[in-house]
Design brief:
five-stranded parallel β-sheet, 15 strands, about 400 residues, Rossmann fold, alpha/beta, Alpha-Beta Plaits
Length: about 400
């Protein structure tokens, strides 16, 4: 008789482990709880597991370090990071070195935690089953879109199983208690067959196929569903890793990459490129007199206003604590100055705060004689300095001043 799927949970708080045990009591998942990551690693050196989940902050080692070691012991297990304290740097380490499949934030929702663990356990089981079908598995893992993934399922079904499939759109929803997609012996018009439904997309296979072929197709379809879901999750993790959590703008690392890309493009093709450096005037006074919550709200609303005010090709980022940067491809300094002026002038009406907030903005563009991106940023920084020195609440472009 096959054993129940095993989920190893590591958390240095015993009450958290007790809560997890209650969540999965009576389910098909067997929970193996550990307060010490070393004990969990010793267990994994002897026993297999479908899921390995860890808190991020623990006394003896971080969750990302534990998951990296667990991956070496049990590479087939699906790894989860469960924490309310992981920053983006820690999350990036867990993704890059611990190869996590999911991130679950605390406090979790019971049904969501159950669904995630069931899904990941099913993915681990599907991985093992499909290891006997390496061409199919490798093809799916190399794909980057749902169209390609569903196409690979259909092609493999025909080539290996002799089963013809066709694409279905607008499928009715339906999920099992374990979170996997419904597999029904009918399509949306009642014709007999096997349907893989993962949201609004699916595949339909003729029910005349042999039972074993239908069973294989079911496993393939479930694996494809999990691959599609992972594509979506990794895309979201990538997006989050590039964003400043407070302003919603790009963070400094993402900005550096985007700026370098735009600079190389401008230098290569002779295209215009302007930069706006933006400083919130007397931001320290806002924090000191009204509290840091008020300062955070200013940054949140200003970030939203910037995103509303720029084009899709522009790059807006939080440059420092109260400094921001907007890169404007294909725009010279004069037009960039007008954009900056509109942003500065719109601030009072659009932020809708019970206290005044003003901006000082320095504008510079890429000019002949600038040998690097640093030269462009230095010019914008000098313009910003002149704006602040000139009384704040103004825009200064290299060589001119406006109010």
């Amino acid at each position: 008789m096959p054993r129940s799927p095993v989920a190893v949970f590591v958390d240095d708080e015993s009450y958290v482990l007790s809560s997890i045990a209650r969540v999965f009591k009576g389910s098909r998942i067997r929970i193996e709880p550990f307060e010490a990551p070393e004990a969990a690693l010793e267990y994994l050196s002897r026993e297999d597991a479908e899921v390995v989940a860890s808190d991020y902050r623990m006394p003896s080692m971080s969750g990302s370090e534990f998951l990296e070691r667990a991956a070496a012991l049990r590479p087939g297990a699906r790894r989860l990071l469960v924490s309310g304290q992981a920053d983006f740097s820690g999350l990036a380490d867990a993704v890059n070195y611990g190869s996590i499949a999911r991130f679950v934030s605390k406090p979790w929702k019971v049904e969501e935690l159950r669904r995630i663990v069931f899904e990941e356990a099913a993915a681990a089981i599907a991985d093992r089953f499909l290891s006997a079908l390496p061409p199919f598995q490798q093809a799916l893992l190399s794909l980057g879109s749902e169209e390609e993934t569903l196409g690979a399922v259909g092609s493999f079904a025909m080539d290996r199983l002799g089963v013809e499939t066709r694409r279905l759109d607008g499928l009715p929803g339906g999920e099992r208690e374990d979170g996997l997609p419904e597999l029904a012996i009918a399509d949306e018009e009642g014709r007999p067959g096997l349907v893989f439904a993962g949201g609004d997309l699916g595949l339909f296979a003729d029910a005349g196929a042999m039972p074993r072929a239908r069973a294989l197709l079911a496993v393939m379809a479930r694996y494809a569903f999990l691959v599609l879901r992972d594509l979506s999750i990794r895309g979201e993790l990538q997006r989050l890793s590039e964003r400043d959590s407070l302003s919603g703008l790009r963070n400094r690392r993402s900005l550096d990459e985007a700026l370098e890309r735009e600079y190389r493009r401008s230098a290569r093709y002779g295209a215009e490129l302007s930069v706006m450096l933006i400083d919130i005037d007397k931001f320290k006074d806002i924090n000191d007199s009204r509290g840091h919550a008020a300062g955070d709200e200013v940054i949140r609303r200003l970030g939203a206003l910037m995103l509303e005010s720029i084009r899709s090709i522009d790059v807006a980022a939080r440059y420092g604590g109260d400094e921001f940067l907007i890169a404007l491809p294909a725009i010279g300094a004069a037009k960039a100055e007008a954009v900056a002026e509109r942003l500065r002038a719109a601030l009072a009406d659009r932020l809708a705060l019970p206290f005044p907030v003003t901006l000082s903005i320095g504008v510079a563009d890429l000019r002949e004689g600038m040998g690097s991106l640093s030269d462009l940023l230095a010019a914008a920084d000098e313009a910003l300095y002149q704006a602040k020195r000139g009384g704040r609440d103004r825009v200064v472009r290299t060589g001119s001043v406006s109010r």
